[in-house]
Design brief:
The chain is mostly helical. It has ten helices and two strands, in the order H-H-H-H-H-E-E-H-H-H-H-H. The radius of gyration is 19 Å and the shape is globular.
Length: about 220
């Protein structure tokens, strides 16, 4: 069960449209993890490759979606807007994941499932990072993600789940996730070579063309 009543109208509409697509489509919390995984991936992933994974096998074209009352163009626009918002939040080191909530329980595992699906699109790149002999903060963050994947496995024996260290990791997971995502973003996006920005017509107080969410004078114009 999700609890997204406090979201802005666009995210609430996105939540309803995903729900209308049926059980094969991602739910909002899962989509948020998926988009974050796409953004911080060691290897960039083209939109044409990752976007269809959001919708599920029941929706193969715009006609199928229309029969379910969903405008695919609008849905895609809302998804891309959320991707851009996550990117800006990560760039500003203030990413706030969208977690499903059931009563007092934060279902971070749903977010992590989406992130894992994004990892699957570039599995060899993640494996290369994890197996690298050159230690880095990105590798440490990737190991942190794999630790969370391990403790989110419902097949983990109850006795092992109740181990104090594992119980603490599970309890702290909602706060750990944005920190790990931030480390991966800084390593794979901010540290990556960037194409020159066209800034001739950008004022110092205008939003930076890089999409960080900062004013130009505080970002690439600094």
């Amino acid at each position: 069960m999700s609890d997204f009543e406090d979201l802005d109208p666009d995210l609430m509409r996105l939540d309803r449209m995903l729900d209308a697509l049926g059980d094969d489509a991602m739910v909002l919390g899962q989509l948020d993890g998926y988009l974050c995984g796409i953004i911080v991936s060691p290897q960039e992933i083209d939109e044409a490759e990752w976007l269809p994974g959001v919708f599920g096998v029941e929706v193969t074209n715009t006609g199928d979606a229309a029969m379910l009352g969903v405008d695919m163009a609008e849905l895609s626009q809302l998804i891309l807007a959320r991707r851009d918002a996550i990117t800006a939040e990560l760039a500003a080191d203030r990413y706030q994941p969208l977690y499903d909530v059931d009563g007092d329980d934060v279902l971070w595992e749903i977010w992590l499932d989406g992130f894992e699906q994004a990892m699957g699109l570039r599995l060899r790149s993640w494996e290369k990072l994890l197996q690298s002999h050159k230690e880095s903060r990105a590798q440490e963050a990737a190991f942190g993600i794999t630790d969370l994947l391990a403790v989110s496995d419902p097949r983990m024996p109850e006795a092992e789940r109740n181990d104090p260290a594992i119980a603490n990791l599970i309890r702290e997971a909602p706060g750990i996730i944005p920190r790990l995502a931030g480390e991966l973003y800084r390593a794979h996006r901010l540290a990556a070579p960037q194409a020159p920005l066209r800034v001739a017509s950008t004022g110092r107080n205008d939003p930076c063309p890089c999409g960080s969410g900062f004013k130009y004078k505080r970002c690439h114009g600094a």
